[in-house]
Amino acid sequence: MKRAIYDEDHEAFRASVKEFVDRSVTPHAEEHLEAKGLPRDFWLEAGKQGLLGLEVPEQYGGMGAGDYRFNAVLTEELSKVNASLPSCVGIHSDIVAPYLVELTTEEQRQRWLPGVASGELLTAIGMTEPSGGSDLAALKTTAVRDGDQWVLSGSKTFITNGYSADLVVVAARTSPEKKAKGITLFGVSTSLPGFSRGRKLDKVGQPESDTAELFFEDLRLTDDDVVGELDQGFIHMMQNLPQERLNCAVSNLAHAKQILAETIVYAQERKAFGQGIGSFQHNKFLLAELVTQIDVTQSFVDECVLAHTRAELTPIDAAKAKWWTSQVQNDVLDHCVQLHGGYGFMNEYRVARAWKDARVSKIWAGSNEIMKELIGRDLGL
After folding, report:
1. Is pLDDT larger for residue 366 or for residue 218?
2. How far apart are CA 48 and CA 117, in angstroms?
């Protein structure tokens, strides 16, 4: 079915994103893979094209789009290249940027936002810890008051953009006795004494995304580094998670849709027993099922995008979109690998890399099991 959520402005923006991808991304895709990360040149060029400041007001150098559909268009186009690209860019521009726009003081906005929009200040968010996983309320990183300063100690892991970030929004426990109600967010410059990074983590998929462990050893901060309200960090994170999960859903679906389209072409061209493999009834029926699954899912995700554009997307609907699209993506890509036969297991084929890249989508941004738990609780169970 023809999608109706985008207008001429969104499609014009899509054309500009596609031009950027064709010129500045696709020719360097193998270099990004070998380097296990995106070079600063990529970020600066993306900033120059206005792709990093969709959430940033114009007075701080951003586009101030005020319409999540532009974010969705950007995510869709980047997801056609690989799953790493929308992950890295999404963390910076869709996830961290709203914290820095909505929860900061004027001084903080002037300090951070121009660099976020230009790509000169690369960001990450430090939530996940080695022992915590999806349980954000159980984090152990602490920020202890010492006179007019805070002393930050602890570690984070699986941090996207962590190896190259200049600024990390870190969740730390400031009032241990309050449990989930005693967490505060801090904007931590990675140039400060006491900050260090581990190695780039060796992941199963998404090698283009630099992912790292971060360590804080008696790192000193001031009240000027507090993001949002003291002890309200958990609430701030919960309020921002729906956009993160919707971003995942948009990316999951666009990524799977692109690889499925390429697999259909492969099924038309690949011959076996004297005919295209797509013409065998089993494969024909399978592809019909997969295309329908993608299209039906697209309708729900589009409705979620529209709801979020109106500031009406609920955390439960965002959870549904996140878990369902990650499940659909993995199912579709597994079938795509199977249809490619032995070639589907070769790293030189996009379908093999996409299959590996997709697996984490059932884990990150809250595991699918956590998503189902949230949905179940909403049912009164």
Report:
1. 218
2. 8
Strand, coil or helix: 214: strand
Beta partners for residue 153, in sequence order: 142
Token reading at 272 = 């076996």
Q: How many whole angstroms separate alpha carbon 251 and alpha carbon 26?
A: 18
Contacts of 145 (CB under 8 A, 6+ apart): 151, 174
Instruction: State the Cα–Cα distance between residues 374 and 70, nearest whole angstrom.
Output: 28
Q: Residue 126's CB: how many other CB atoms inside 10 A? A: 24
Q: What is the mean pLDDT of residues 66-91?
A: 97
Global pTM reads: 0.95
∠ Cα 162 163 168 (to 5°): 35
Listing DSSP states for 84-110 in one string gives HHHHHHHIIIIIIHHHHHHS--HHHHH
SS3 percent helix, strand, coil of the chain, rounded to 5, is 60, 15, 25
Q: What is the rounded CA–CA span in Å between residue 98 and residue 52?
A: 12
Distances (CA, A) of 35 to 40, 199, 338, 381: 12, 13, 29, 47
Structure tokens at 249: 């859903």
* Dist. CA 181–CA 264, nearest whole Å: 50
* C-alpha closest to that of 115 among 166, 180, 78, 163: 166
Our CA angle for 223, 109, 165, nearest 5°, is: 85
Q: Does residue 318 sit in helix, strand or coil? A: helix
Tens digits of per-residue pLDDT, 334-346? 999 999 999 999 9
Nearest Cα to Cα of residue 290 among 3, 369, 282, 5: 282
Catalytic residues: 244
Q: What angle do CA 283, 285, 291 make, to 5 degrees?
A: 100
- The answer to whether residue 133 scores a pLDDT higher than 80 is no
pLDDT digits (tens, 9 = 90+) for 154-190: 999 999 999 999 999 999 999 999 988 999 999 999 9
Are the CB atoms for 15 and 77 separated by under 8 Å?
no
